[in-house]
Amino acid sequence: MKSVDVVSAIMNDEAENILMVKNVKGYWELPGGAVEKGEHLHQAVIREVKEETGYVCKVKELHSVRAAYFQDKEHHALMITFFAPEDK
Questions:
Q1: How far apart are CA 86 and CA 38, in angstroms?
Q2: Which of 27, 30, 33, 77 is the right S-S partner for 8, CB 3.0 to 4.6 Å?
Q3: Quick one: pLDDT at residue 43?
Q4: pLDDT per residue over 35-48, tens digit each?
């Protein structure tokens, strides 16, 4: 069984608006993606946010950790979400 680590970021502005991105399937989600081999989780969040939004963020603290199993692909995913405000 393949195991994948996925990170995402909760970014909000002063008005508490949360930044979301539209994925290829048309769903809105937090910016993030798969952790590359040898990459630290914080590095992955910063890279993914930059790639998907153009914003540079700083990782503050852990929000949540969730696990899921996708039967159709026989993949296990560990999803890690961080609070990561824009680095101004």
A1: 24
A2: 30
A3: 97
A4: 999 999 999 999 99
Q: Which residue has the tokens 């680590």?
A: 5
Instruction: State the DSSP H helix or E strand holding residue 9, giving kind and residue range, or none if neither.
Output: strand 2-10
- pLDDT (0 to 100) of residue 79: 97
Q: For the chain, what percent of residues have pLDDT higher than 70?
A: 100
Distance separating alpha carbons of residues 41 and 70, to the nearest angstrom: 22
| Cα torsion angle, 45, 15, 64, 58, sign | positive
Nearest Cα to Cα of residue 84 among 9, 7, 8? 9
**Tokens read off for 70:** 């996708």
CA distance to 21, 27, 28, 48, per residue, from 24 (Å)? 10, 7, 10, 15
Q: Can you name the CATH fold of 2-83?
A: Nucleoside Triphosphate Pyrophosphohydrolase (3.90.79)
Position 33, amino acid: G
